[in-house]
Amino acid sequence: MEQSLLLSFFKKAGVPIVQKQYGKAVAYLLGEKAVLAIGGHGKVQFGIRTQYFLSEISDVDQVICAGVGGGLVSDVHIGDVVLGRGCVEHDYQQKLRTAPSPFFEGNVDMLKVFEGFESSDYDVHVGVIASGDEDILDEGRRKELQSQTGAIAVAWEGAGGARACKFNRKPYLEIRAISDTCRGGDFEKGFNLALENLGRFLMNIVK
After folding, report:
1. Please, what is the angle between helix 158-168 and helix 43-56, to 10°?
2. Do 104 and 170 touch, CB atoms closer than 8 A?
3. Are 185 and 159 in contact (CB under 8 A)?
4. 158 - beta bridge partners?
5. Per-residue pLDDT at 29
6. pTM
């Protein structure tokens, strides 16, 4: 659904869109250089699909994971955009030995460029994004996860793509537009707004 809404946004904005076949997978060329592909649901599927496209497209300069996410702190509001200073894998739970949760740094050079983008319609934040295959739907779990990770937003897939990019030595950045506040009940209302603002933000990159 995220891909179809973004494609609709780019089409209305006049961005040239060409459907292309990359091996067995379909993706979309936006303008001259950006490729929009479905990442899938969850860290494993996103990691596999990231690796697949990195293998099929020889001249990838950087990878961006873009989609909706939940806000974990009070000053990150529905419709805002969060740039991942890093991605922490919150559901990587080791019981037999003590070790920190896996953490993947966001590409510093990409952050320097993108965090300068501003909009009167939403705020842009830079911070850690928690990554794990879990919907966060109540205040207690929201506070627990924020305390555990120090993250300001949470989503499912980020760490999968981060792992694939680290293996391939490709710059990686996660960008999330906030669709809900992880308390339950506001996801459907915020989803379309989040995707519209994400499309506006990504237009800076596509252009």
Report:
1. 40
2. no
3. no
4. none
5. 95
6. 0.94
